[in-house]
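Q: Structure tokens for this one, please.
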Amino acid sequence: MVIAGPRWPSADLGRHPSDRPPIALASSLPAGTVGAMVDRTAIAVAPRSAPYLDEAVARGGGRVVPVEEASALVWTHQRKPEGLGVLLREHPHLGWVQLPWAGVEPYRDMLDHERTWTNAKGIYAPPVAEMALALLLAAFRGLGGYARATTWTREGGRRLAGARLVLLGGGGITRELLRLLAPFDCDVTVVRRRDRPLPGAARVVTTDRLHEALAGADAVVLALPLLEDTRHVLGAAELALLAPGAVVVNVARGANVDTDALVAALRSGQVGGAGLDVTDPEPLPDGHPLWTLPEVVVTPHTANTQAMAVPLLGALIAENVRRWIAGEELRAVVDPDLGY
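A: Here is the predicted structure, written as tokens:
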């Protein structure tokens, strides 16, 4: 799939700029460094472009050129990392690679310090946070069961206001969701790698305190990257710590949650509702229990649609092209050591 295609991974996988180690600015790269000896206005878009991408490059002051003439690359293919690997081996002079989505799992093995890597972390946070809030409200109010009903049913549901929430991940989605949650006066704990305060969070704790944070929580929202240590970060043991009838919302990656454990917790009543924009496996197969459990709302990875993404990505590319040409630090820089 290319970035003109129908769907986008949308979990924000980034860290706040203040959390990142310093990087060399483009203007300070020494002679002979990758990308330092070519025209910085020359930007390649591959494997294929779209009008809005060409326009974004132009808005940033650049011009779209063949890869062999370029100083930097906007990569547009979502699924086949080998294509980018071949291109970089054939054109090692490229000093900056812009990836079009927030998740970089397919390309993690090729991230290096020879060039600057950027992705789309943070820019898709507003639409994804909106979806997270919608799924929270749907689960708290029992809308999954009402939507499936074919007859008048009895009342149910509970309020989100004042609930104890745990947000896993401290990137752009979490920051935006905290802003959206402000009117609900929730007690929010954020679990992230660093315990720096975040506006709107009652507390921020590090990942080693995950179980402490989950104990008795009314809901947990996953908005974190998929790494080896975050795969199945929410499993049977973690679900058992939540308050009985708690809500699970996932707008990160499906494999952040142990699906079998979630199904079991839903059937037992330990989890009272779930809102899932991502699943494992994905696409969710026909006949999977998550399709029919009345407490569950599943959306097909649509928290950030193409219509939402195009203007946001275009604006990021234009700004990063401008910064690349000016020798300024780029936005949404990927840390090769952390892998996001």
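A few notes: Confidence is low (pLDDT under 50) at residues 1-36. The longest helix spans residues 306-326.
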